Protein 1
Amino acid sequence: MVLAYDNLSMGGMTVMAMMDTLRPEYEDRIDFLVAPLGAPNGRDFGERHGAVNGMVVLFAGSGQAVRVVHVPENTDELQQALDGLLIPPPRN
């Protein structure tokens, strides 16, 4: 998962705190990364994914973006997104 983060706005800071709360439960299965939107690589990430401050982009193991959470309202919403990433889709 990658958090788009701008240190000049509270939204990203709030989501960063949510990530820190959930990290111990998921860190062995999910990589927690931050894309600082004020830095060149973070700006590139933001442009490539249409990411704004506080947005979380979830990626499959293949590196493909599979879900975007637009500034989660609370830790439960972020946790549900992480759990959804870990549950394999049903086979047809």
Protein 2
Amino acid sequence: MHPLRSARLLVSLVIAGSAGVAHAQGATPPVLPDPTTTMARSITPLSMDAKEFLRTHRWDPSDTWVLKSGVEAPVGVRPRAEVKAERDDFLRKNQFNQATDTWTPRKAEIPAGSTLSSKQVRADALAFQRTHHWDEGQNQWLLNPERTPRMKATKG
């Protein structure tokens, strides 16, 4: 880079930077809430919830929290067996696609194939083609018009 250009660039950056600082010095700082009172207000409900949870639950060796015996589940909470069954059903019907980062339905089961042999399939296709023809205009198979049998010429 040419020395004159780099000097111009340096001067421009210094001027732009100092204007931003001067502007920032004139602004009044925002008033922040006192963190001690805010934290105390937000922690109190959490500690109450934690105490209630610990009163009704125990840690199970299977690495999960379970209700203590004699304690009923809160209103609206479904039984664990029902939730597990729903989860297993979802996992059976869906798979995670890492490329799109979404859950996608698994492909439906492929219906059982034909029990005909390849020879039988070929014979069936030939029989169909004898009685039908493909119409390009309508894009479909049409039944062939009935043909009248040809009469052989008789020698007379």
Protein 3
Amino acid sequence: MAADWGLMLASLVLGDADFAVTWDVLRKPKRDASYNLPVLLLPTSFPVDPVAIGIAHATPIIRGQEPRFSAVSAYEAWTAKRA
């Protein structure tokens, strides 16, 4: 379910961003946790792995803790107009 949340957020970003956002498979660096996985490429930003972010967001919730960031803040950060 957490991975689905990340993919849903990515889908919203792809539809709402007013700049080019594309999917790609991360090939470098090989030591990256998202190596060989699909990531979003945002302009002037590092690759974003929405599935990993969904899992990172859900883990504290499952443990009964507050997440360190909200879905709204992630969405706003990803869709913010880049200078």
